[in-house]
């Protein structure tokens, strides 16, 4: 009962702040929050529970009501698109989300989008949207590493900063962004690096795009790869994506898993290889056989950083393989899925990997 009264109180405060801004003639950006669940909407057994909690328990209205300060920086609407832990996110969900984002951004009265998301697959959803959103307006993904019920919950400040960023003109045209822990990252380059730490999201090799400092987004670099409005990928009429698997390289690796993927009918496979995307001699044979059956093979690396050099660890030109550049395996999979909606030519797909 106390929690219900608190939520009602916060909603009243939110409405009052909104009314004051409107009365004062302040033109605030219109930001729509699309909620998908995750830890930011999670609930634990106690205020000190930061693991073994239930994700996606708190609805979008309560998330917004818990941060009444949002009314000072934006006109905020909320929609509950999904209510899941992000480990359950699927390509079908990505298509649904991309469709709704594009619908909203096509409206003249919407200035930006914030997506609340679980952190486990946040980077994958962000990169998919980076390739499929058809607008230069800001799209910002945020989440939390501690549930909403924790005394040290990081979600409210992350949400506040995400809305601030989504409403900022400085964020326009920079691709889909990820905002957690005051740090602004490019969707293409960011990755989760720690299981529980609040500063888990990092950008290996390249670093953050910028930070939110004293309530202002500050950018220090931009991503040079094509994205959003300049992307050639269009998922408007798609109901499904081609199936692509990931094979994780290891000492003494066994080809049976790859063979099972090929037998199942995957259209492509990403080698999360050791070192520079390397493969054992036995796996090279297995991958070449897969390629001979029409499966597109992409070499990436399990190391977490670095650039895959073409023809360095495999005869990519001879084998008709694709190299992933500096995309990690999970993001290479996404780009390959989208590339396969347009072509099955490995050389054309290689062009896309260099461009995106």
Structure summarized in a few sentences:
With 356 residues, the protein is of the alpha/beta class. The protein has helices at 2-23, 60-65, 91-105, 122-132, 155-166, 256-264, 281-292, 316-319, 329-339, 346-355, and strands at 30-37, 75-84, 112-116, 139-142, 177-180, 183-186, 191-192, 201-202, 210-213, 216-219, 244-248, 268-273, 296-301, 322-323. The chain has 2 domains: 2-230, Rossmann fold; 244-355, Rossmann fold.
Provide the descriptors you would attach to this structure in a database record.
356 residues; alpha/beta; Rossmann fold; 2 domains; eight-stranded mixed sheet; four-stranded parallel sheet; 14 strands; 31% helix
Instruction: Quote the average pLDDT.
Output: 94
CATH topology assignment of the largest domain: Rossmann fold
Total strands: the figure is 14
Question: Please, how many domains?
Answer: 2
Measured by DSSP, the beta-strand proportion falls in 15-25%
Q: What's the number of helices?
A: 10
**Terminal Cα separation, in Å?**
51 Å
Which consecutive residue ranges, at least 5 long each, have pLDDT under 50? 15-24
Give, in order, the helices and strands: HEHEHEHEHEEEEEEEHEHEHEHH
Task: Provide the gyration radius in Å.
Answer: 21 Å
Q: Helix- and strand-based class?
A: alpha/beta
How would you sum up the major sheet?
A: 8 strands, mixed
Helix content: 25-40%
Which CATH class of the largest domain applies here? Alpha Beta
CATH-assigned homologous superfamily of the largest domain: L-asparaginase, N-terminal domain
């Amino acid at each position: 009962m106390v929690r219900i009264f608190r939520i009602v109180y916060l909603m009243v405060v939110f409405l009052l702040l909104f009314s004051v801004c409107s009365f004062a003639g302040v033109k605030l950006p219109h930001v729509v929050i699309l909620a998908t669940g995750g830890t930011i909407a999670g609930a634990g057994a106690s205020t000190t529970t930061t693991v073994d909690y239930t994700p996606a328990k708190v609805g979008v209205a309560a998330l917004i009501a818990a941060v009444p300060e949002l009314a000072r920086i934006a006109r905020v609407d909320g929609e509950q698109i999904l209510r899941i832990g992000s480990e359950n996110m699927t390509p079908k969900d990505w298509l649904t989300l991309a469709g709704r984002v594009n619908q909203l951004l096509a409206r003249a009265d919407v200035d930006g989008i914030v997506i609340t998301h679980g952190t486990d697959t946040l980077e994958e959803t962000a990169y998919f949207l980076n390739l499929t959103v058809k607008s230069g307006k800001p799209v910002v993904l945020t989440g939390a590493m501690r549930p909403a019920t924790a005394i040290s919950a990081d979600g409210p400040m992350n949400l506040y900063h995400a809305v601030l960023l989504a409403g900022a003109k400085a964020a326009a045209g920079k691709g889909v962004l990820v905002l957690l822990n005051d740090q602004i990252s490019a969707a293409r380059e960011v990755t989760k690096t720690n299981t529980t730490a609040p500063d888990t999201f990092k950008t290996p090799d390249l670093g953050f795009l910028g930070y939110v400092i004293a309530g202002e987004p500050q950018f220090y670099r931009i991503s040079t790869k094509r994205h959003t409005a300049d992307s050639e990928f269009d998922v408007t009429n798609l109901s499904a994506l081609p199936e692509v698997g990931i094979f994780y390289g290891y000492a003494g690796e066994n080809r049976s898993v790859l063979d099972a993927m090929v037998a199942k009918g995957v259209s492509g496979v990403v080698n999360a290889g050791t070192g520079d995307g390397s493969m054992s001699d036995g796996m090279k044979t297995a991958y070449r056989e897969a390629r001979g059956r029409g499966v597109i093979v992409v070499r990436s690396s399990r190391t977490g950083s670095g650039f895959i050099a073409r023809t360095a660890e495999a005869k990519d030109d001879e084998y008709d393989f694709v190299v992933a550049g500096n995309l990690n395996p999970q993001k290479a999979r996404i780009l390959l899925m989208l590339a396969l909606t347009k072509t099955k030519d490995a050389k054309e797909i290689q062009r896309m990997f260099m461009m995106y």
